[in-house]
Structure formats: C-alpha cells, structure tokens
C-alpha cells in the first residue's frame, strides 16, 4: 500500500485537527508495512495502582490505526471507528511510554481493517492487542 502522508505530515495533521492530544501522541515511523506511534505517559494516564489506564491504551491504539489509514488515503478527517476490540494481556511497565505497532490488514473504498499491538517502551511482549474497523467517507 502506497504511503501518501509521511511522519511529518501525520504529526502536523494531528496537531492541527486534534490539538487536545498533540502533546501526548506522536507517529514515529510509517512505511508500507508498519506504523509506529507513541504515547508519552504521564500522571494523567495512570489509574490507581500506578499502571497506565485501559482508556489510555485504547486511545493509543485508535490514534495509531487512524494514522495508519490516513497515511494511505490522505488527510480524511472524517474517517471514523466503526468497530473495535481490545485484549489487555499484561500490565504495562511502570514509568515507561507506550508504543503501538500498527498494520493495515485491508484497505477498501469504504472500510479499512487494522491491528495494533501495544508495548511498554523497551518491552518485548505486548501489553494489549486491538483490532479496528474504520469507515472511510465518500470523496
């Protein structure tokens, strides 16, 4: 799948369209096979017990999938999540950012399906796996 938005364009789009999350999430890598995004974890992402909250993990997966799709279709701000499933597999490591590795599995005219694996920075085993379907609006 051809890339039409690179790392710089994706991060600029997210800063412009979603300024409320601009400091938390960033795309670090994108190519025809993989997009890597990062959540800069701070105290606002923690739940009791000092671990990263489920909603924060889910948000990283959603941002990564959204950006992976936009990397292929361009800046289509109204592409939206239509289905999501997440498996929380282990507790994220304390004091570490989270990294999402996202792969687009199918890109059609109307729907896109992707998967994101979420890791604690430096960790080898995923802390969560998320699959998502996005609806792509007509041109």
UniProtKB/TrEMBL annotation:
<dbReference type="InterPro" id="IPR006683">
    <property type="entry name" value="Thioestr_dom"/>
</dbReference>
<dbReference type="InterPro" id="IPR029069">
    <property type="entry name" value="HotDog_dom_sf"/>
</dbReference>
<dbReference type="InterPro" id="IPR003736">
    <property type="entry name" value="PAAI_dom"/>
</dbReference>
<dbReference type="Pfam" id="PF03061">
    <property type="entry name" value="4HBT"/>
</dbReference>
<dbReference type="GO" id="GO:0047617">
    <property type="term" value="F:fatty acyl-CoA hydrolase activity"/>
</dbReference>
<dbReference type="InterPro" id="IPR039298">
    <property type="entry name" value="ACOT13"/>
</dbReference>
<keyword id="KW-0378">Hydrolase</keyword>
<protein>
    <submittedName>
        <fullName>Uncharacterized domain 1-containing protein</fullName>
    </submittedName>
</protein>
<feature type="domain" description="Thioesterase">
    <location>
        <begin position="49"/>
        <end position="124"/>
    </location>
</feature>
<comment type="similarity">
    <text>Belongs to the thioesterase PaaI family.</text>
</comment>
